[in-house]
Amino acid sequence: MTLSQPPLLADVRSRVEEVRDEIVAIRRDLHAHPELGWNEVRTTGLIRQRLTAAGLSPQVLPTGTGLICDIGSGDTCIALRADIDALPVPDGSDSPFRSTQEGIAHACGHDVHTAALLGAALVLARMAAEGELNHRVRLIFQPAEEVMPGGALGVIAAGGMEGVRRIYGLHCDPRLPVGQVGLRVGALTAAADRILVRLTGPGGHTSRPHLTGDLVYALATVVTELPAALSRRVDPRAGMSLVWGRITAGSAANAIPSRGEAEGTLRCLDVNAWRLAAELIPTVAGQLIAPYGVEVSTEVTHGVPPVMNDPGAIDVLRRVVVETIGPDAVATTDQSLGGEDFAWYLEHVPGAMARLGVRPAGVDEAADLHTPGFDPDEDAITIGMTVLASCALLD
Asked: Within this chain, do residues 254 and 322 fall inside the same structural domain, yes or no?
């Protein structure tokens, strides 16, 4: 039995509509109660309760948050993944279900991902009970996607990829209008690392910089020159980008501090250049501060490799989108410099991640991911449910 058979295709659509209102309500509940990575206790409990009510047997991960749940039986297993954590970003919306947690929000759309997978799970569970699912489907509700190197590693360590043949996921994209799904073969995202550069020195008076190590000047040199220097030490086709997000040093205008830090992210389109960076950054940073009489230490925390979409999995996604939404719903999408720990799953099995359009109709430019104003169109939840459930059936 394949999805291309009209009765089954119509069945998926009708079943998705049956649970739509419930799933939208669950998404609003998740949005109002966001939880940071490794702390998704309430979120995990809500998901577990609903899956259990559907007759399934979810298993909470050993880390205490997130869960895995199989539907159906058989040797073939297709995995569907959603991330469940939020971000330390304030909710800038005025909706009635805005975040109740100060400074925390689902600013990356993980509440939409979670709701879409939960809805797909309810559809698939009912189909399995009625004998319409002839293989296993593994649901992965993953914690801590936003925490490098990502909660996907915990899922894998817990056996989440054992027996899986292929894996699928979706990610909100405010650049695409609701109703479109972005597909790309090969690299979808970039490798991403966290970079910390720490300078230490004797400190001193700003009237006598020549008698001490001018740490702030040295730190400014690292901040401005390290990204530029890397661009001359790595093949420009690698697309390496170092951007700082935090700089701290000193507390008085007339005192040269003895300690300062700069922290940011290094992103790279090429895996080989990404691996080289861990050795290159300490060397270049040391060369840059050598004239200033201060010491430098660096920490490179490896994040994630690029998400490499499998051609076969993209073919399945394309067929699903065409047959469930329509040919015009298929969109091309560029490689992003964003990091995504879905990449770790693809180190073990082939699969693909698609971009789920969430820009509201009539809006030319929506707020980006990771910003307080991010506000996805809830119609995307229905599309996400349909695509995920259909991938599980078609593959």
From this structure: no
Whether 350 and 277 map to the same domain: the answer is no
In this structure, the answer to whether residues 78 and 222 fall within a common structural domain is no
Report how far residue 331's alpha carbon sits from residue 180's, in angstroms, rounded to the nearest whole number.
Answer: 6
Q: Does any domain span residue 21?
A: yes
CATH of the domain at 251: 3.30.70.360
Report the pLDDT value the prediction gives residue 9, as an integer from 0 to 100. Answer: 66
Residues 31 and 116 in one domain: yes
Residue whose tokens read 């599980």: 392
- For residue 7, the model assigns a pLDDT of 62
Are 166 and 28 members of one domain? yes
Structure confidence at residue 135 (pLDDT)? 95
Q: Distance between CA 343 and CA 150 in Å, rounded?
A: 10
Give the chain's residues under pLDDT 50: 1-6
Among the listed residues 79, 314, 305, 78, the one whose alpha carbon sits nearest the alpha carbon of residue 181 = 314
Structural domain including 234 reads 191-304
Identify the domain boundary among 254, 281, 304.
304
Asked, for residue 1, whether it belongs to a domain, the answer is no
Q: What is the pLDDT of residue 5?
A: 45
- Cα–Cα distance for residue pair 86/341, rounded to 1 Å: 15
- Cβ neighbors of 219 (< 8 A, separation 6 or more) are 197, 199, 247, 249, 260, 261, 262
* pLDDT tens figures, 230-260: 999 999 999 999 999 999 999 999 999 999 9
- State the Cα–Cα distance between residues 249 and 199, nearest whole angstrom: 9
* Per-residue pLDDT at 112: 98
Length of the chain: 395
Other beta carbons within 10 angstroms of residue 228's beta carbon come to 10
Euclidean distance between CA atoms 19 and 27, whole angstroms = 12
DSSP-based three-state secondary structure for 192: strand
Co-location of 346 and 300 in the same domain: no
pTM of the model: 0.90
Cα 284 from Cα 297, distance rounded (Å): 11
Tell me which residue of 156, 135, 138, 139 sits closest to 62, measured CA to CA: 156
Number of H helices, E strands in the chain: 9, 16
Of the residues 261, 281, 304, the one at which a domain ends: 304
Domain count, the chain: 2
**Type of residue at 309:** N
